[in-house]
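Section 4.2 – Deliverable D4.2 (structural model, holo form)

The reporting period included a commitment to supply a predicted holo structure for the target in complex with FSX. Inputs used:
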Amino acid sequence: MVSIKSDSSVESKGYPNESNVLTSLVRDHIKLLWLQGQGCSGCTVSLLQAEFPGVVDILLSNIPFNKVNLEYHPTIMFLWGEKALELIAKPPQNFILIVEGAIPTRDGGIHCLIQISNDRPTTLLDYIKNLASKALAVIAVGTCASFGGIPKASPNPTDAKSVADVLGQDYKSKLGLPVINIPGCPPHPDWIIGTLTNVLLFIEGKAPPLQLDKYNRPIIFFNKTIHENCHRAGYFSEGEFAKKFGEKGCLFLLGCKGPVAYGDCVERKWNGRVNA
Ligand code: FSX
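Output (structure tokens):
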């Protein structure tokens, strides 16, 4: 439950008037800069489903273990208009860069702009390359940002690339971390929040960095195939395969990638732990 106390002494600096009270909450915190490239915004929708903490708690810095604020997010943020663009032009001191969506690189990256100032476009490609060296950590959210996803699929007209491919596979953030990949189309909200939580605890010296696998995915969330815990796995073992949706049996012949896809969705479940 989020409680907001009114504080009239807090001066608004680019935040909506009615949220003066929020300004004090977001000042001097570690900022999260969330940028969107080529994707469907499903990763953001997934973030909105986060529960412990929820996205409102993150927006309000109402998280006990650290002071953090989702400062910039094209879909959900307090800043707007010129103030938001100012933040893009002059990023904060301590920030974690989160990227959703693939990054188009063809034609100098012109196919995804994050702003146009004085007739000069800023491409996502250049912006991320410039910003990454100053970031405490870089987190690629979703399959598109992690590996290129659907935008990178043939014929890939924009030469879309993953964050790590743009920054270089040897990239290290200011904290010495590689690009942390959280694939999934979309990724589970717990994976996003859980990874972020670890990075924040690591910054405070209260936790070691998450162990990552060879694809730089947090092992804690990606250590098993979907198939290992699938409630239809018994059908697979028995060789009983569904030929059409709705039929009893394993869905392998209908395109299920459970045996080769990693994630803990089956145990963790989706939508408030209702759907497997
Ligand atoms: Fe990609 Fe995000 Fe799939 Fe969509 O934008 S991981 S298309 S669910 O949402 O990047």
